[in-house]
Amino acid sequence: MVTQWEAEQRSRAQERLESSPLVTLICLISNIRRTTHTAWNPPTPDFGTAGVEKMQVCLMVILPLLWPLINAQVPHWGPCPEPVTQPAFNFKLFMGRWFEIAKLPAQFEKGRCIETNFTLQFDGTARVLSSEILKGELRTIEGTAVVEDKKNPAKLGISFSYVLPYTPYWIISTDYVNSALVYSCTDVLRLFHVDFAWILGRSRSLPDSTINHGKEVFTKNNIDVSRMVASRQQGCDKLP
């Protein structure tokens, strides 16, 4: 069932799609929209019956370019939600070892015993070391975490490559010693967004009440966690 909020986001997304400069540009390049115009008077998209057909063709051109981003996740209409993050977030207290307890399914996380260790660096960033067991092998990846918004230090960014930009890694809630709720979201032209959400723990398990409360917090922030699944943290004491 589509909620009123989702319906509103879908309607807004359609409006943005109809006025998207990128869509208009691609249509022009593809010779789909043949409209005379000057440099100071660009054409206004026509979205009558014929316009819809043209837009469908435009989307056929655009979607293959966007598919690698949305393939791993279920996209949602509209821009990313703006959840309330942890007030007075303390980056230093967040350092240390966190285990993945529950998550929205992610293409890049296929193993078990997933954990992340944050280590504060002299320059104020944090070294991020994530690991998982996949096909009987311990696999690790190293990256860097930074506070991207000094006015809102709970809005971290993480990158696992020198050539890629930082990905949002927002701390929605944490008590630093037991659990944390983390959210990441990327939108495409503010038309739709793909997101990730995690419930983390300082130990490999959390009480059901803590997990359920975490899901409630996500939901109150317009984050759909209906597909959230438990992470596999069994048998991790026998690491390969």
Secondary structure: elements and pairs:
Elements: H1 4-19, H2 21-29, H3 49-70, E1 76-77, H4 91-94, E2 96-103, E3 112-120, E4 126-134, E5 137-147, E6 155-159, E7 167-174, E8 179-188, E9 192-201, H5 208-220, E10 229-230
Antiparallel strand pairs: 1-9, 2-3, 2-9, 2-10, 3-4, 4-5, 5-6, 6-7, 7-8, 8-9
Number of helices: 5
Q: What structural class do the secondary elements suggest? A: alpha+beta
Main sheet: strand order = 2-3-4-5-6-7-8-9
Would you identify the regions where 5 or more consecutive residues have pLDDT less than 50? Answer: 13-48, 57-72
What's the main sheet like?
Answer: 8 strands, antiparallel, barrel
- Per DSSP E runs of 2 or more residues, the count of β-strands stands at 10
Distance between the termini: 44 Å
Helix content: 25-40%
What is the approximate shape? globular
What's the average pLDDT?
A: 77
Radius of gyration: 21 Å
Strand content: 25-35%
| SSE sequence, one letter per element | HHHEHEEEEEEEEHE
